[in-house]
């Protein structure tokens, strides 16, 4: 369903369709399990841990103060340290705290994509990321994959044929499988 209203929306917004995920989630409830939106089991939420963390944050009045757009510096330092433990070297200054993965995808699309630019994605991929690329009027190129995700040789063949501005992959728990592709064995 596209947006039908007399309100003077920007052209790119007029082309947006209603989110299939949002529609699917409307049907989920206490007695209905929706597999469409990938809802986690509420039993898995760390309610006590989150309550404890919230209490600590609320005890610090500065939590309500304006802060840096990139995120609270202490949190960014801790995130950089956590990522380092996991083998990713990230400078604190190069790290932005977002409200979720979607905000990150949206920001990347906003700074990289001009209308008509190409984005290579796995097939199938995360629907909402596709909606973001469409909103930025990008051309989406599907690259085949297997349960490990995008096939490197399929991507290589796409890259040989056309200019691709962005490659979007879901590195784990992708839509086809549960596996992570191992890095190529050292020569
Ligand atoms: C691959 C992928 N990326 C991003 C998201 C959205 O993440 P967030 O809720 O953190 O914006 C989802 C949610 O299902 C997802 O499956």
Average pLDDT confidence is 87
In DSSP terms (H or I, runs of 4 or more residues), the helix count works out at 7
- Strand order of the biggest β-sheet: 2-1-5
| Name of the top-level CATH class of the largest domain | Alpha Beta
User: Which percent range describes the beta-strand content?
Assistant: 5-15%
> What is the total domain count?
2
Summarize the structure.
The chain has helices at residues 11-14, 20-26, 47-59, 73-85, 101-112, 127-135, 152-161, and strands spanning 118-122, 139-143, 145-146, 149-150, 166-168. By secondary structure, the chain is an alpha/beta fold.
Explain this structure to me?
The protein is α/β, with parallel strands linked by helices. The chain has 2 domains: about 45-95, no CATH class; about 100-180, Type I PLP-dependent aspartate aminotransferase-like (Major domain) (Aspartate Aminotransferase, domain 2), CATH 3.40.640.10. It has 7 helices and 5 strands; from the N terminus they run αααααβαβββαβ. The strands form 2 sheets. It has a 3-stranded parallel sheet with strand order 2-1-5, with helices on both faces. The chain has a two-stranded antiparallel sheet with strand order 3-4. The longest helix is centred in the N-terminal third of the chain and has 13 residues, at about 45-60. The radius of gyration is 20 Å and the shape is globular. The mean pLDDT is about 85. The protein binds pyridoxal-5'-phosphate. Pyridoxal-5'-phosphate binds near residues 102 and 170. Pyridoxal-5'-phosphate binds near residues 38, 102, 126 and 170.
